[in-house]
Each structure stands twice: as C-alpha cells, then as structure tokens.
Amino acid sequence: MFKKALLLGIISGLLAGIAGVVYARVYHSSLGADFSKVAPTVRIIASSLFGGVLAAIGFFLLDRLLREKGEIVFNLLFSIISFATLLAPFAVKLPLDLEAPELFRAW
After folding, report:
1. How far apart are CA 69 and CA 56, in angstroms?
2. Is the dihedral of CA 93, 97, 100, 102 positive or negative?
3. pLDDT in tens, 40-90
4. Which of 13, 20, 49, 70 could pair with 66 as two cysteines, CB 3.0-4.6 Å apart?
C-alpha cells in the first residue's frame, strides 16, 4: 500500500509541476511578466513533486493510524493546509524601492 501511495504522490506531483510550468508560460506570454528568476522551471516541478510525495506519505500514515477516519481527517487537514499556503503570498509586502513593481502601475 505504501508503494501505491508513493507512486500516486509522485505522479500527481509531476502532473501538478507540469501544470504549474504551463501556467507560468501562459502567464508570461499573456501579461509579459517574467517570474523565472524567482520561480524557475526546476523549482516549480520540484516543489510540486515534494508536495505530492509529502501528501502521499501523510495520507498513508493517517490511513494506517486512524483506519476508517483516516481519509476524512487527511482531506480536512489537506484543505486547511492548502488554504493556509494561499494566505502566505498575500502577507508579502511589495518592495518600496521600486517605482512600479511588475503588474502594478501608478495611475
């Protein structure tokens, strides 16, 4: 069962990484903003792969420890953690030394 969970984590992480790279390319081509110095292709794929494997291990452990309620607890924790990771970028303050950071125009 661990091998299956790990394989699914790797596959889902790779697919998420590919989707992230495609999104970054589409974003760059449509808006002209290039974030490749901050988030290069390798980092996008590696972070997605790491997240997928970590989630697979967490699912396996919760499923083993809590038996019948493991899936429910995992889904709840996964939702909370996913929401929390979306809040972090909003807490970042824009650099004050730039006249107009990318995609923020002074009207």
Report:
1. 16
2. negative
3. 999 999 999 999 999 999 999 999 999 899 999 999 999 999 998 888 777
4. 70
The phi and psi torsions of 85 (rounded to 5 degrees) equal -70, -20
33 to 2, 25, 29, 38, 97: CA distances (angstroms): 41, 10, 8, 12, 19
Query: CB–CB of 63/8 below 8 Å?
Result: no
Distance between terminal CA atoms of the chain? 57
CB neighbours of 52 closer than 8 A, spacing ≥ 6? 9, 10, 11, 12, 13, 14, 16
More confident residue, 90 or 14: 14
Cβ atoms of 2 and 60 closer than 8 Å: yes
Q: Is the dihedral of CA 23, 29, 32, 35 positive or negative?
A: positive
At residue 107, the pLDDT reads 46
Q: Taking 70 as the threshold, does the pLDDT of residue 18 lie above it?
A: yes
